[in-house]
Design brief:
By secondary structure, the protein is an alpha/beta fold. It folds into two domains: about 1-135 and about 310-335, Rossmann fold (3-Layer(aba) Sandwich); about 140-300, no CATH class. About 30% of the residues lie in helices and about 25% in strands. The protein has helices at about 10-20, 45, 60-65, 85-95, 115-125, 140-150, 175-180, 185-210, 305-325; strands at about 1-5, 25-30, 55, 70-75, 95-100, 130-135, 155-165, 220-225, 230-235, 235-240, 245-255, 260-270, 280-290, 295, 330-335. The longest helix is centred in the middle third of the chain and has 26 residues, at about 185-210.
Length: about 350
């Protein structure tokens, strides 16, 4: 049985606690929190399930001293220029594997800046440990789904992975306003957000290119927006009239002078925004080639919130990766080097 320590109890962390509680092959050994009010609170209580007998703590040193195999990092995105590599190295050097939903710049070692990559690899070697980034997007959609679908094609001209989500019910003001720039006065703010996210998306493009045997020459990005016709109230707050209320943004990987790979997001707060943009909810992979293929992934049905289900999917992807990562050799592991992740049936 693999013993794991969870870092972070936000939406993804709570979903991970619930997922681990339902597993017979993974045990939750500890939970790292930053809010003093969560100190000593049972992890199950934090996750909204029955208590599971594991108390959350702010004492990181005590957690790293535990006999555990793996750390699941689901905390906030570090604001330091080095993405908090020192904290990652401390975990890896302690002998614990690390699976992160946050640290996408580290997922593709060949293109990761040396000042970030080299300390991470040294820590993996010192602790005989493995780092793995996963999630849903970046993660399963941008990497796994596109590459798996490509195996059906005899010729590939272009692969587009697209996320289409309605964020009106997503109750995270930090994500909606501070990160994504809903409510901003112009498209330039959104372009700033997209540019800042390039280090998180580019590694997925490089990973897919590696899988296809292609070399990326350049990565470009762009965005379009629509503005609110009137004040718009959503779960995260109020979008003022005349500010950004819907957006479409994308990254293109240029190969042989042409865009071979695209990661695109269509993010709305109302279903009628950007009628010329891709419609529906969920994720699609479109392959222009021989033959042309489209794969669609829809999460949740009925009254379920699609964004919340995306968070559950990301957390599940990390939890389901634990057996493969703990069995992998030291270093940076990716979708290309690990066996296929899979869910697990548990007899009730």
């Amino acid at each position: 049985m693999a013993k794991v320590i969870l870092f972070g109890t936000g939406n993804a962390g709570k979903a991970a606690i619930a997922a681990i509680a339902g597993r017979s092959d993974i045990e939750l050994a500890g939970v790292r929190v930053w809010d003093p009010e969560k100190e000593g609170v049972d992890a199950g209580t934090i996750a909204g399930i029955d208590p599971i007998g594991v108390a959350a703590t702010t004492d990181e040193a005590a957690l790293l001293a535990l006999d555990a195999d793996c750390v699941l990092w689901m905390g906030a995105i570090p604001t330091e220029p080095d993405m908090g590599v020192g904290g990652l190295c401390e975990i890896l050097a302690s002998g614990k594997d690390l699976i992160s939903l946050i640290h996408a710049p580290f997922m593709h070692a060949a293109t990761c800046p040396p000042e970030l990559r080299d300390p991470l690899l040294a820590a993996c070697e010192a602790g005989n440990s493995t780092f793995h980034f996963t999630g849903i997007d970046p993660g399963f959609i941008a990497e796994a789904q596109g590459l798996l679908a490509s195996s059906l094609c005899s010729r590939i001209d272009r692969i587009t992975t697209r996320e289409i989500l309605d964020y009106s019910g997503y109750d995270s003001p930090q994500m909606i306003f501070d990160v994504m720039q809903f409510g901003a006065p112009s498209v330039e703010y959104v372009l700033g957000f997209v540019g800042a996210m390039t280090p998180f998306q580019a590694p997925a493009l490089h990973l897919v290119a590696d899988g296809l045997g292609a070399t990326i020459e350049n990565i470009t990005h762009d965005a379009e927006v629509v503005f609110a016709d009137e004040d718009l109230t959503v779960a995260a707050g109020t979008i003022k009239k005349g500010t950004v209320a819907g957006m479409r943004f994308w990254w293109d990987a240029i190969v042989d002078g042409q865009p071979l790979l695209r990661i695109e997001h269509v993010s709305r707060l109302q279903p009628d925004q950007g009628p010329e943009w891709a419609q529906g909810q969920g994720y699609t992979v479109t392959i222009d080639g021989e033959p042309p293929i489209e794969v669609r992934l829809t999460k949740g049905f009925g009254d379920r919130n699609d964004v919340e289900d995306a968070v559950i999917c990301a957390a599940a992807r990390a939890v389901n990766a634990v057996p493969a990562v703990t069995a992998a050799p030291s270093g940076v592991a990716s979708f290309l080097t690990l066996p296929l992740d899979r869910g697990r049936y548990e007899h009730s």
